[in-house]
Amino acid sequence: MIECDKVKTIPFGGDYNPEQWPEETWEDDFRLLQKARINIMTLNVFNWALLQPDETSYCFDKLDKVMELTQKYSIHVCLATSTGAHPAWMARKYPDILRVTQGGMRRKYGRRHNACPNSPTYRKYAKALVEELAKRYADYDNIVAWHISNEYGGICYCDNCEKQFRLWLQKKYGTIEELNRVWNLNFWSHTMYDWEDVVVPNMLSEEFEDNGIRTMFQGISLDYARFNSDGMLECFNMEKEIVKKYMPDVLVTTNFMGAYKPIDYQKWGDSLDFVSWDNYPNYDDGPAEIAMRHDLMRGLKDGKPFALMEQTPGVSNWQEVCKLKRPGILRLWSYQAVAHGSDTVMFFQMKQNIGACEKFHTAFINHVGNGETRVFREASGLGAELKEKVKDLTLGARTDAKIAIVFDWDNWWAVENSAGPSRLLSYVEEIKQYYKALYDMNYDVDMISVKTDLSGYRLVIAPLLYMCKEGFDKKVEEYVAGGGTFLTTYFSGIVEDHDLVVCGGYPGKLKDVLGIWVEETDALPAEEANLFSYGEKTFPARILCDLIHLRGAKMLGAYQKDFYAGMPVLTKNSFGKGNAYYVGTRANEGFYQIFLKEICDKLELKPAAYTEPGVEAAVRVNNNGRFLFLLNHNPCETAYQVEEPGAEILSGRDYAAGDMLKLGAYDVAVLLREKDFRQGSESTV
Ligand code: GLA
Ligand code: ZN
């Protein structure tokens, strides 16, 4: 698929579940889907029960027939391994495969993603199934990728997990003394004498319910989150290795879920040949939130293109309110994914179910059963456009962002596990404030991990860097000393990797580069705000207000109220050749817009384009040239004054600088400035 020469055009298609339909209907589906120009199907996602009706027998007859049809209709296949839901016989015979919930309840057979990742029985049967599948389908040259399991997620607290957790800890910490240290176990007489004293941190032990799940021991719950994510990664790698044994060159992936808290996708990135993910925004999510998730996914493999594995053509059944995608949105959001780095446009699903919870999830072929629907027309229109206009032009293109936002799963877990200073802290919400301001100005942004090399960026923003991990402080210092601009916020630099406070004054190891000392932090209830001045304006200070002393930094803004009125809230420190900013509170959208614009202007950073509000611009570059994607999220026509000449690839029109490019409601344009675009002549029309 990605970087794979088997698909010459952008892969377009998605999940098809023929096992839910009589065989006689399959070929009609293929004919109709071919009309929609699909060229790829994800197959076999939840098929284990039919593939393996009991412990010892396998039956591939149906899948063989479907695979034959894919060959007959020249459809590429993303073949899944079906291990995302186990068969009933397995649960009946081996209850140890069933997960135990946070509440300590052993589940019965039901739902999906229902197997304990650390169950030896589950792993044994998953391995055996994948072995059979890989052996059988190794020679199908229309398989362009393998899709391991499905949307790994959730968390298990069973006895298998407890045992494995102890081993995971032994490997990580070596001695029980070290475990006592990193978890601070002399608190509340928790000192452990033996690894057997370790129990899973759920409701039966350290966790409790109080307006959400909370924990008494942050270090234990944090390590459990890491362990749970690692266990699922082991399952992924186990299956991947089997696939690679039979097809060393085939690409292997699994579908991620964007900003999904239980799985540390950054740790998984290296194990996937390409990242793929499922984009299901809530009906009230804005385009900035979607864009941020795309960028987060692109960052998992250092900016390599990813695959949009799933999105709904219409509605997702599981939303509280299943609002229809307005005409044009299917196309707009598909191009938005491409604009942010996707090399595919794929959907869930090709044909709508008739029973169970997804029967009201839109598909290409809906219950009416033909192509005479708005959704089918929109989908097939997009299929044709991608095939005829976009072709393979954008494949492999990269985003050349000069701004990075640090996103870190450990911080996400740790910040939100924290008992104090405020339950209003939301890691993703805080990051969104910064992302949205940059998005609104059309800056391309990379969402990076703490491991990413910073040297290519002019501005690095690390909101809520509560946990400053081993070495990251030095990395930031070097980056700033070398001329970089760094920005972090309140509640940063507080702890090290085990959630133990770094003594000597906040923000810990970041004190020098920021040139400040945070003496205290005031938490404000949601309805309260302090105020601070910046430039000519005044902005609210919410959630947390750091009480800052300058230790070399300059004050850019001060609180206006309460006993800390006059104390700095915003600071800037020159450090070597660069600067480090500190935003000591949560402000509002107006502030982030002004503040980040000033920083970007000072750094002379150019946005992808200067557009009217509601028109998103993003750039990707490959050997074919520079693609400027213009996405009109407005429900009305909006014009864009072309800044650089280019060929609009969807309409085939050439534009010169200064021309007005009209975008209809929810319309898209892709301006290609070829590498050698009409060299020497700037007026092109
Ligand atoms: C997920 C799953 C699919 C399907 C869709 C429905 O993304 O991977 O199998 O259930 O949700 O929205
Ligand atoms: Zn378990």
Molecular structure report:
The protein is α/β, with parallel strands linked by helices. The chain has three domains: 12-97 and 118-157 and 230-390, TIM Barrel, CATH 3.20.20.80; 403-602, Rossmann fold; 615-673, Sandwich (Immunoglobulin-like). Strand 14, helix 15 and strand 15 (485-489) form a beta-alpha-beta unit. Helix 8 (218-246) runs antiparallel to helix 13, helix 10 (287-298) crosses helix 14 (427-440) and helix 14 crosses helix 17 (589-602). The longest helix is centred in the middle third of the chain and has 29 residues, at 218-246. Residues 677-685 have low confidence and may be disordered. It binds alpha-D-galactopyranose (GLA) and zinc ion. Alpha-D-galactopyranose binds at residues 45, 150-151, 255, 278, 280, 310, 316, 348, 358, 361.
Low-confidence stretches: 677-685
Give the DSSP E fraction (strand runs of 2 or more residues): 15-25%
Strand element count: 29
Helix content: 25-40%
- Please work out how many helical segments DSSP would assign: 17
Number of domains: 3
* CATH class category label of the largest domain: Alpha Beta
Tell me the Rg in angstroms: 26 Å
Structural class: alpha/beta
CATH topology of the largest domain: TIM Barrel
> What's the name of the CATH homologous superfamily of the largest domain?
Glycosidases
The biggest beta sheet is recorded as:
11 strands, mixed
Shape: globular
Bound molecule kinds, no repeats: alpha-D-galactopyranose, zinc ion
Determine the mean pLDDT: 96
CATH architecture descriptor of the largest domain = Alpha-Beta Barrel
